[in-house]
Design brief:
Shape: elongated
Distance between the termini: 55 Å
Strand content: under 5%
Structural class: mainly alpha
Low-confidence stretches: none
Largest sheet: none
Helix content: 40-55%
Radius of gyration: 24 Å
Order of helices and strands: HHH
Bound molecules: zinc ion
């Protein structure tokens, strides 16, 4: 069994603090900056990991209401 807790992580390039791998993409990396490239790699691997997890166990469907509640509500309005 594998357990992974929720991870909150922030990374920012000190030379290009406005660079966002999600919005800008790898093509926006200036002068081959290693930090910005590392942010792109981390983002890419994160997306791949989420896809692998979703493929392993698809999200559960929400519980359906049990049939019969509508009938109970209707009986309040005078039906015999
Ligand atoms: Zn950078």
């Amino acid at each position: 069994m594998l357990k992974i807790g929720s991870v909150k992580w922030r990374g920012k390039c000190s030379r290009h603090p406005k660079f966002d791998p999600y919005l800008d993409g790898r093509a926006a990396i200036r002068n081959g900056c290693e930090k910005c490239a590392a942010l792109c790699d981390i983002y890419t691997h994160h997306v791949q990991m989420l896809a692998l997890m979703r493929g392993f166990t698809p999200p559960q469907n929400p519980k359906r209401r049990t049939p019969g509640t509508a009938d109970l509500q209707a009986s309040l309005f005078g039906e015999p």
